[in-house]
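TASK: fixed-backbone design
INPUT:
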């Protein structure tokens, strides 16, 4: 009998393959970064073929590290960067363009045009989403407009669209030799083309965006056996697909309405489980599918999406040379006792939840001759915590639920200064799980449940264990003063782009 489950965690900056045992502990892992391509300001692309080649390499690498082979795996799951859009040729297997990354802003004009005709929220009732450059439907529309003959070829069924999950599963299951063109409800819900009530592509929205249905993948649940792998994983069932943030919600065992997790990665993404009914937001949040297990009803979530979190530290490292490695940012921030009244609003791609101001751009406010590198480093870390506070306030207003604790995961949870400041500015405890690879773990759970490796979601709850807890220790007056200054800085970022 297989002893493990594998998980592909394909993220914005790198791809990982992780092997888990029945207790949810990591047995083996391999990871590779891929290039970030910036053709012009606001445009962000990935080479989808490079990503697939990296995935092939890390699967082999993780198995080799522990002397494993495909027969040791009961199933594999896929978690992926959502909204990043791939369009490829069914016959050749080649993408017709670089993948357009979720934070790319090239569809701003399309957003403005459709919003002018019916308002930014014209599709929110059906999709749970405002019109924004973030989602993949308008990225697909841009590709169909920009590439000569693409719309006709897509209508004939020879061009295939998907978020990264669909691209990976198609290649995993054979590619040009009969690969499966499927996605799950969580990824489909991020295209702005799926109806939350029917869990199917919406014909009116497809007509509005001028997207042919034949290029779209079949929408499946998040946990079922879709098909069998080929290549290094030959014969292993591909049995779980979740967008990365929904995977983290599942991996964090946030399985009851009111449970909340926040993932601190390239961006920052907070999800609250709201149960089996879509919950409309009135405060700038997204309504999305949290997960769907086989034939069971879908579970929905409220989401607050923050475009720039860990990416701000990367920017300080790569663009300004502030630090040589991202991990050095905490030590630099600790050289000062506070932010020196410096605030950094990282609206590099506009502001996402709860503001949804695509015309915003990044600002550093409050600079004086007193400010130094330590203050800017500290302000950069605090920006993630302040943005998270903005989202939690909106979530509390929408749901009427006061959050008891925040379950935190992602690369930035290793930063004690940030996590303590997060607890302080929220006035809520922040908890890091023992297994911080919650995105990959959530996809593994979805696959393992479908394959019978785990028997029920009770196994997920029993596996979850806390590692470290940060409790608030900030004076309320100090908190209020910081929040007031942050809100002033945010307003300074508005309407930079005409």
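OUTPUT:
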């Amino acid at each position: 009998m297989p002893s493990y489950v594998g998980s592909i965690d394909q993220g914005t900056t790198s791809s990982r393959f992780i092997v888990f045992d029945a207790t949810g502990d990591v047995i083996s892992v391999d990871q590779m970064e891929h290039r970030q391509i910036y053709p012009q300001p606001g445009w962000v692309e990935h080479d989808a073929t490079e990503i697939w080649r990296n995935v092939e390499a890390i699967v082999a690498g993780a198995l080799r590290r522990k002397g494993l082979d495909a027969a040791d795996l009961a199933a594999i799951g896929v978690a992926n960067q959502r909204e990043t859009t791939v369009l490829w040729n069914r016959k050749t297997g080649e993408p017709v363009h670089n993948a357009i990354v979720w934070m790319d802003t090239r569809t701003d004009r399309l957003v403005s045009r459709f919003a002018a005709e019916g308002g930014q929220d014209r599709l929110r009732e059906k999709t749970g989403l405002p019109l924004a450059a973030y989602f993949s439907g308008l990225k697909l529309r841009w590709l169909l407009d920009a590439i000569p003959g693409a719309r006709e070829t897509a209508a004939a069924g020879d061009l295939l669209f998907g978020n990264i999950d669909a691209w990976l599963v198609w290649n995993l299951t054979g590619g040009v030799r009969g690969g499966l063109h499927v996605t799950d409800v969580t990824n489909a819900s991020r295209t702005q083309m799926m109806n939350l009530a029917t869990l199917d592509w919406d014909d009116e929205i497809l007509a509005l965006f001028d997207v042919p249905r034949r290029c779209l993948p079949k929408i499946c649940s998040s946990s079922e056996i879709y098909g069998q792998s080929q290549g290094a994983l030959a014969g292993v069932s591909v049995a779980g697909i979740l967008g990365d943030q929904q995977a983290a919600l599942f991996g964090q065992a946030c399985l009851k309405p009111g449970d909340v997790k926040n993932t601190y990665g390239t961006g920052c993404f907070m999800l609250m489980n709201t149960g089996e009914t879509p919950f409309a937001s009135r405060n700038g949040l997204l309504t999305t599918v949290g997960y769907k297990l086989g034939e069971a009803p879908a579970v929905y979530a409220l989401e607050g999406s923050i475009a720039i979190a860990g990416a701000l530290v990367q920017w300080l490292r790569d663009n300004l040379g502030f630090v040589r490695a991202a991990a050095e940012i905490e030590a630099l921030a600790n050289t000062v006792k506070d932010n020196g009244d410096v605030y950094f609003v990282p609206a590099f791609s506009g502001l996402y939840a709860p503001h949804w101001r695509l015309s915003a751009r990044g600002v550093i406010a409050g600079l004086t001759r007193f400010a130094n590198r330590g203050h800017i480093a500290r302000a950069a870390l605090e920006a993630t915590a302040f943005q998270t506070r903005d989202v939690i306030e909106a979530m509390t207003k929408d749901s009427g639920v006061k959050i008891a604790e925040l379950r935190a995961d992602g690369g930035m949870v290793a930063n004690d200064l940030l996590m303590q400041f997060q607890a302080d500015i929220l006035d809520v405890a922040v908890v890091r799980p023992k297994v911080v690879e919650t995105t990959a773990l959530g996809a593994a759970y979805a696959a393992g449940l479908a394959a019978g490796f785990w028997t029920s979601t009770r196994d997920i709850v029993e596996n979850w264990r806390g590692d470290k807890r940060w409790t608030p220790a900030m004076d309320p007056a100090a908190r209020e003063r910081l929040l007031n200054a942050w809100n002033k800085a945010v307003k300074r970022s508005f309407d930079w782009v005409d």
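COMMENT: Residues 373-399 form the longest helix (27 residues).
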